[in-house]
């Protein structure tokens, strides 16, 4: 079975260049997703579960590095970056696969051969540490966090502090926000920002993505239940059972 | 105003001598001017008078007890001798570095000259009553040599000493001057290098990304390859020109920015719209070289590129209430608080004030959906543009 790949770069020309180069150097690699930003790339990863992800570093939404951190070893990651001393040194030091733009056929062939020879990605913990060091070396800016959500309800705009959110759920092109109200009961609003675009603006310590279409406030989860290879998250004082997809089941591990 | 004959003479001398001084090397000129000042001072005049007295004393010493010799011609000769020696010394002083100022040469020539002078003087003084024959020649050598040779050697030694001291002093001063000049040059080069580093605006990341795009477009036979390379060529050329000066006109800066934005537009595709409009009366204002490019790069890098949907960049320059206003507006992501807030901006602000004075302003603010970087400078004075 041929391997499947995702490519992500905010410049269309660079994506085409990579496609073309891959087509000639690795003809049986199937490109299953072609993304113009980091949030799309992460969403496409969850959707297609590719074996390899070629990621540009500087992308809107999530950076290539952030996408790699989320992929966390579930696929081989190759960074594609334009030349800069600083970055290359960091990649070398971190033993991280990378390609340099403009793509050079010889070096591309070497990098791809190394990639094919390696059966599985590095152990998760070690990879996380490497990516952490790379992030520090590249000096990526601190991500922007959203504090208040604004939802139009009828003729008014309702403000919902992120702190009061219980969970977010993708709903077609909208996001359903289930939140607490001052009287303790729950309520919900629809916002226009798609879930995948909301994700980079939320603190990953406080909000866990547990499914491609669900992000939940960690403190609202009371327990998780397993059924064979499926998992459900149960909420405090609420009846919902939220599905935890396979990718995110690793978040829950007894200490 | 002093119009005495003496001062008029001094002024005339000053004018005459100035033209001659111009031909001297800097160090010698310095000395000559000092000597002039000294000679016209009381001390200098005193020393001149002293030399005359010295000549008088020498003449008196030679004539004393010999009533057959008259006093005046001897005094005249002594005067000549004293001044000749003084000027010989001075010319040694100013003949630094020439062949005539080499100590060995001075000793030999001065001694020989003194001897020759002595012989000729002896022979000449007896020419009238005793004629010239072999006996006279012999007498000249035997009687003059023991007296003149030591005097000549002494004088020669003194002159040679003057020359040696002078050469040494000159070399020391020249070394100091050279060291100063080197230090100044090093400093100038350092600040120029700093400036150029600041102006080396084209970061490798941008350059290689652009080349990567151009390479692919060319391979794919896409006509945008040629456009991209032409714009890159324009940008590089313009930036290279900018590294030769510390400032540039708004029109030149705008041209550079057009190249840059045209490249970004090809690369970012529909995610970037842009417009540059420069009004004629603002086009001549001077900006620190590559400053407008820095603002536009920031707009792209921190505004448009991080925005999922991209945005619009507008560059305007116009005159508003007697000041030139240059704006770079973008509708991308708002500037985010950074760990090191605006080092680049602070740097640019400093360069702007160095160039355009303390009234120059640089501000970055969010106005509704736009991030606006604005520069205010005083309008250039049209009369000041004579060159």
Give a structural overview.
- The complex is a heterodimer of chains A (255) and B (387).
- Chain A has 255 residues and is α/β, with parallel strands linked by helices.
- Helix content of chain A is 29%, strand content 33%.
- Chain A folds into two domains: 4-138, Response regulator (Rossmann fold, 3-Layer(aba) Sandwich), CATH 3.40.50; 148-251, LytTr DNA-binding domain (OB fold (Dihydrolipoamide Acetyltransferase, E2P), Beta Barrel).
- Chain A starts with a strand and ends in an 11-residue tail after the last strand.
- The mean pLDDT of chain A is 88.
- Chain B folds into two domains: 5-195, no CATH class; 204-384, Heat Shock Protein 90 (2-Layer Sandwich).
- Chain B has eleven helices and seven strands.
- In chain B, β6 (361-367) and β7 (370-378) form a beta hairpin.
- Chain B starts with a helix and ends in a 9-residue tail after the last strand.
- The model of chain B has no long low-confidence stretch (mean pLDDT 81).
- The interface between A and B is medium-sized, with 25 and 28 residues.
Based on secondary structure, the structural category of chain B is: alpha+beta
Give the domain tally of chain B: 2
Ranges of chain B where pLDDT stays below 50 over 5 or more residues in a row are: none
Order of helices and strands of chain B: HHHHHHHHEHEEHEEHEE
Please count the beta strands of chain B (DSSP E, at least 2 residues each).
7
> Could you give the order of the helices and strands of chain A?
EHEHEHEHEHHEEEEEHEEEEE
């Amino acid at each position: 079975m041929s391997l499947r790949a995702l490519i992500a770069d905010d410049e269309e020309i660079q994506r085409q260049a990579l496609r073309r180069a891959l087509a000639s150097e690795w003809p049986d690699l199937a490109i299953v997703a072609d993304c113009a930003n980091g949030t799309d790339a992460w969403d496409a990863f969850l959707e297609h579960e590719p074996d390899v992800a070629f990621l540009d570093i500087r992308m809107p939404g999530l950076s290539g590095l952030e996408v790699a951190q989320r992929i966390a070893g579930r696929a081989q990651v190759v960074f594609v970056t334009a030349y800069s001393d600083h970055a290359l040194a960091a990649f070398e030091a971190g033993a991280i696969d990378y390609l340099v733009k403009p793509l050079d056929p010889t070096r591309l062939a070497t990098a791809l051969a190394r990639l094919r020879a390696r059966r599985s990605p590095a152990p998760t913990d070690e990879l996380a540490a490497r990516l952490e060091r790379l992030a520090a070396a590249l000096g990526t800016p601190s991500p922007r966090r959203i504090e208040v959500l604004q939802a139009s309800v009828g003729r008014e705009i309702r403000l919902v502090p992120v702190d009061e959110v219980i969970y977010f759920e993708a709903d077609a092109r909208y996001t359903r926000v289930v939140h607490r109200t001052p009287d303790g009961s729950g309520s919900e609003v629809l916002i226009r920002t798609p879930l995948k675009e909301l994700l980079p603006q939320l603190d990953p310590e406080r909000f866990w993505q547990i499914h491609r279409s669900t992000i939940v406030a960690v403190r609202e989860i009371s327990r998780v239940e397993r059924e064979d290879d499926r998992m459900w998250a149960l909420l405090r004082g609420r009846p919902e059972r939220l599905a935890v997809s396979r990718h995110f089941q690793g978040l829950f591990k007894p200490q | 105003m002093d119009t005495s004959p003496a001062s008029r003479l001094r002024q005339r001398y000053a004018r005459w001598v100035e033209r001659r001084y111009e031909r001297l090397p800097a160090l010698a000129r310095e000395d000559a001017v000092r000597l002039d000042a000294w000679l016209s001072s009381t001390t200098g005049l005193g020393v001149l008078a002293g030399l005359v007295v010295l000549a008088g004393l020498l003449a008196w010493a030679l004539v004393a007890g010999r009533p057959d010799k008259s006093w005046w011609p001897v005094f005249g000769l002594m005067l000549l001798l004293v001044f000749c020696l003084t000027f010989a010394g001075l010319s040694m002083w100013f003949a630094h570095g020439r062949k005539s100022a080499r100590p060995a040469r001075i000793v030999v020539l001065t001694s020989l000259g003194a001897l020759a002078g002595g012989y000729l003087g002896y022979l000449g003084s007896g020419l009238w009553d005793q004629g010239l024959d072999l006996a006279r020649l012999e007498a000249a050598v035997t009687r003059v040599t023991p007296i003149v040779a030591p005097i000549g050697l002494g004088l020669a030694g003194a002159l040679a000493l003057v020359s040696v001291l002078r050469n040494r002093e000159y070399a020391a001063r020249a070394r100091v001057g050279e060291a100063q000049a080197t230090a100044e040059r090093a400093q100038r080069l350092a600040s120029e290098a700093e400036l150029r580093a600041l102006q080396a605006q084209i970061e490798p990341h941008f350059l290689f990304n652009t080349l990567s795009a151009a390479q692919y477009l060319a391979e794919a036979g896409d006509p945008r390859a040629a456009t991209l390379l032409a714009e890159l060529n324009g940008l590089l050329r313009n930036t290279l020109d900018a590294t030769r000066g510390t400032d540039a006109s708004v029109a030149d800066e705008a041209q550079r920015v057009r190249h840059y934005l045209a490249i970004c537009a090809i690369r970012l595709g529909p995610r970037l719209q842009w417009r540059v409009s420069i009004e004629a009366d603002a086009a001549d204002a001077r900006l620190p070289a590559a400053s407008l490019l820095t603002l536009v790069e920031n707009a792209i890098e921190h505004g448009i590129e991080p925005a999922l949907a991209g945005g619009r960049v507008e560059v305007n320059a116009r005159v508003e209430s007697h000041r030139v206003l240059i704006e770079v507006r973008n509708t991308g992501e708002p500037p985010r608080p950074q760990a090191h807030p605006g080092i680049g901006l602070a740097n640019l602000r400093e360069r702007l004030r160095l160039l355009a004075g303390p009234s120059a302003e640089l501000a970055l603010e969010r106005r509704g959906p736009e991030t606006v970087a604005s520069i205010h400078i005083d309008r250039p004075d049209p009369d000041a543009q004579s060159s």
